Amino acid sequence: MKLPAFFIAHGSPLLVLEDNDYTRFLQRLGSDLGKPQGIVIFSAHWDSPEQLITVDAQHETQHDFYGFPEEMYQLSYPAPGDPALSRRISELFKDSNLPHQPVLGRGLDHGAWVILRTMFPQADIPVVALSVDSLRSPEEQYNIGRMLAPLREEGVLLIGSGGLVHNLRLLKQKDQPEQWALDFDGWIAERLAAWDLPSLYAYEKQAPHVREAVPTYGKEHFIPLFYVMGAADEGRAAQLMIQAYQYGTLSLNCWMFD
To answer: Which pTM was predicted?
Structure first.
């Protein structure tokens, strides 16, 4: 069965401890998806000028955050890797002449394990993590995703983990969203529904309130969107599954691409 690809906002690391509409949605989504053959995840928290691929047989859990409750540092997500799937990805990259490198022993960062632990708590699905490159053009990021499209026919779930509105310097002490955040997400939603690639590629010049939503120091959270869109280039169908906000400006949304 051909699986859709997803962009999933991972919010704050505390998401993994929370019980709210968004976490309950992720739990239902994981249940509905069943048990894929494997998961390939682009995480905003692995930004590299080289395309990197984990090749581990077993992942450790990164606690790549600070100042959180002690309970957070006791959590783990001991998902297996899949060296065979890693090799398959390498073959697809080679076919498209994309330079890439294997990485052993990195573990899963919180951009990956926070949402995977919520969706698939048994940690029994093999995971391969891929880096993103915030210095590439959106078109290049999209084309890397296109290279991985065959995996969807092979029972592999592709996820981009990040955040469309993700500016930690503008967080508020309320969950009611700021109007500028709504305006930005609304602009993105309209372009995704139309699969308007020229406008999306030019989001930095065209989207309203783009500097607040995607600060220059935080582009890595937005760009996983392009990678997973590319994996759905053949169908070009986008569906917003849920939209929520925390702290006024932290967008929690899930987009499905098919």
So the answer is: 0.97
